[in-house]
Amino acid sequence: xxxxxxxxxxxxxxxxxxxxxxxxxxxxxxxxxxxxxxxxxxxxxxxxxxxxxxxxxxxxxxxxxxxxxxxxxxxxxxxxxxxxxxxxxxxxxxxxxxxxxxxxxxxxxxxxxxxxxxxxxxxxxxxxxxxxxxxxxxxxxxxxxxxxxxxxxxxxxxxxxxxxxxxxxxxxxxxxxxxxxxxxxxxxxxxxxxxxxxxxxxxxxxxxxxxxxxxxxxxxxxxxxxxxxxxxxxxxxxxxxxxxxxxxxxxxxxxxxxxxxxxxxxxxxxxxxxxxxxxxxxxxxxxxxxxxxxxxxxxxxxxxxxxxxxxxxxxxxxxxxxxxxxxxxxxxxxxxxxxxxxxxxxxxxxxxxxxxxxxxxxxxxxxxxxxxxxxxxxxxxx
Length: 382
Prior knowledge:
382 residues, Jelly Rolls, 2 domains, eight-stranded antiparallel β-sheet, 4 helices, 26 strands, 43% strand
């Protein structure tokens, strides 16, 4: 009996010596539901050190305790069986209601939902369905990590970062696991958590570049009109650019971006970009800037650079977002090494030395596009 008890304990723990030193602890003991509560649906069960969903019922189970800043690690296994979809999720900073995906955040688990595939923050920031099918197939154990530091949310699945975004809706709540519908099977194991202090979150070193209130520190060229509404920087009305007053050399930049057509029947598809190491065009300041551009264009068309491309130089490896959806863009320009990430996934990794220093600029490409940008942060290269 002692040997069996030790074995079950090992199923649940799997804390490495490094994790123990860093302050991780087991969130699920592998033996019973101590510290957990069923908030909706039927009871979950513990089997072989795994937390198994009630396949005859929909619902969710969550921690009794609430958490704000943390790193959560674990593994999930899902099988849609004879149903249409293997749908589950990990809730975090959630309220104990019947709709925790709305009253909190959800790391979605689904390889059938094209709008919210596995790794999406449900109905907020999507991932790419085909890519998630490649890296996190059904009927196998997949590892995940959720890092929540203030509004900065990062998600890694099977060692690949699939989210790196900024969200402000929820700051604290329970952690939960979902059984979306009867007939499918979902299991979780090796759940462990490290709580983070405000100091650890501040150590990321990100500094705001946009104050969320007005255009202090920025100047515009061209015809576009710029305004700030509820923390969002909005550009519309024509071609133009909004430049930072200061210049940057070696840096990382991250921002949340959304583009949409001015009207549903607009004849031109939404187009935008973030310029860096750039200056207003010396021949015509109202024309395209001189510098690098991280492209924003969410349609695969011949001759067009898709979102995340280094415009005119390197095509992004895949399209990871869509019109009308918020997505995160991160630009890393350190020396001649340039990397661009969309929703945490690296889509450009190249070297180019044409421009060494310049301003950050947000583009409003044309009168048919509305561009929205928020949570613009920067930090020096390490």
